[in-house]
Amino acid sequence: MPRPHRSSDRRPAAAGGQEEAASLPRIIGGTLRGRPLAFAPTGQTRPMKDRVREALFNLLGPGVTGAVAIDLFAGTGALGFEAVSRGAARAIFVERHFPTADAIKKTARSLGIEERVEVRTGDVLLWARRLPPLPTDRPWVIFVSPPWSFFGERWTELGGLIEAIWAAAPPQSVMVVESDTTFDAAQLPALESWESRPLPPAVLHLRR
After folding, report:
1. Which of 27, 119, 172, 188 would staple 139 via disulfide (CB 3.0–4.6 Å)?
2. CA atoms 175, 105, 110, 202: torsion sign
3. What pTM does this model have?
4. Domains of the chain, CATH where assigned
């Protein structure tokens, strides 16, 4: 089973999810609802399921409006583009796989929102050591949706990333971490500040 990043930061498709993974992912809400995302179903990527994405944005509610969406392990960019569709001022995507990063840029062009999108290439786990410059004039909505294997195999780096970016986040920011059901949420830093919502096989962990 491949071990790189989410979507193409690349999470393997979950059992029973092949049909959804193979379909062309689309934005499911907001002003860009129904618009497709550039995606090549190779079996190495798994965009967040629509029902999980809908539940996530229901939980976030109006907190997305006017915020900066930071989509780590971006893959197709489904979360960042969904945030922009639902009112985020802009989105920053971090994706280490160059062809997939190019696909995010293609999606931004096709949606006519290039001026609201920034794509950064590289291994986002390195941000645990040193954060790059990020805008701080607006709250952030931070999406952390890595390959689920990272919660075991690379937790030291992933946990460090979660702590580092939250420490830098402006007031009123929110972070969402998507894990599978085998992850022990007690490992999250400042556990009492998180709210977990199981949506098997995924679990959404929110920190406000």
Report:
1. 172
2. negative
3. 0.88
4. 18-207 (3.40.50.150)
Q: How far apart are CA 33 and CA 93, in angstroms?
A: 19
Go through the chain and tell me how many residues it has.
208
The confidence score (pLDDT) of residue 72 equals: 97
Reference 94, options 75, 115, 114; nearest CA is 75
**Residue 180: HSE in the Cβ half-sphere, 13 Å Cα cutoff:** 15
Q: Is the peptide bond before 201 cis (omega within 30 degrees of 0)?
A: yes
What DSSP letter does each residue of 6-48 carry, written as one string? Answer: STTS-PPPPTT-HHHHHSPPB--SSTTTT-B------SS--PP
* Cβ neighbours for 3, distance < 8 A, ≥ 6 positions apart: 147, 149, 153
Q: Which of 72, 5, 69, 81 is nearest to 37 (CA)?
A: 81
pLDDT greater than 70 at residue 46: no
What is the three-class DSSP state of 161?
A: helix
Q: How confident is the model at residue 31 (pLDDT cuts 50, 70, 90)?
A: very high
Q: How many CB atoms lie within 10 A of CB 184?
A: 10
Strands 174-180 and 202-207: antiparallel
Q: In which residue are the tokens 């390959």 written?
A: 147
DSSP state of 199: E
Which of 134, 38, 33 has its CA nearest to residue 87?
33
